[in-house]
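Q: How would the structure tokens look for this protein?
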Amino acid sequence: MKKIWNPWHGCHKCSAGCKNCFVYYLDGLRDRDASIVTRSKSSFDLPLKKSRNGEYKIPPGSEIATCFTSDFFIEEADEWRAEAWNIIKSRPDVTFLIATKRIERAAHLLPDRFGQDYDNVRIAVSCENQAAADDRLPHLLDLEAKHKCIFVAPILEYVDLKKHLASGEIELVSVGGESYKNARTCDFDWIKSIKRDCDEYKIPFDFHQTGSNFVMNGKRYRINHSWEYEQAAKAAAYLNESSHTEIE
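A: Here is the predicted structure in token form.
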């Protein structure tokens, strides 16, 4: 069961993958400035909230997508992060998935004994192209963390991850396309190539969303955002040769 926790909101564009950031797009629809980083007033302590019966509102066994409308390691959150780490440590019964483009800051911002006391944290580095992967992934591999993942999202080209996968430290690669009206191409050939690389190193692979501008077998599909996850599942089934269902 996957839940969402955004203890703070807002971010600054820092690389090519940020050009059509979904947070900026959605905030723009609400006339909100996504570049202003603010602490959540209502949900900062969401993982600790309980129902009237005394049970956690986010049940044990859940995976919590953490800070997906910001970056957990963004500078403005430095004054709030220690409190967030304490919340994370107090819920060892759930898994916190933290995705970041600012992995170079992480080594100096992890709590003491992170490698021993935070088994419930998965850190994923987002790298949209080869340059980002080659710049960010060495920082991830140097990190004292038990659970390390790679998000190639939004994918902008084929990204060769083999030298990083060869480390044996990556436990998941997840790939996804870009969403909404200005989405750049997500080519299924790139997905297939990354899947083959993962298979070579026996790394679990996930194709989590097609994006809104998806090319498969030479045909371009404009996909409504609400269908991207379902269509990615169909494409993944096709990729795994368990189904040859075409994208509708």
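Confidence is low (pLDDT under 50) at residues 242-248.

The chain is about 30% helix and 20% strand.

Upvote if useful.
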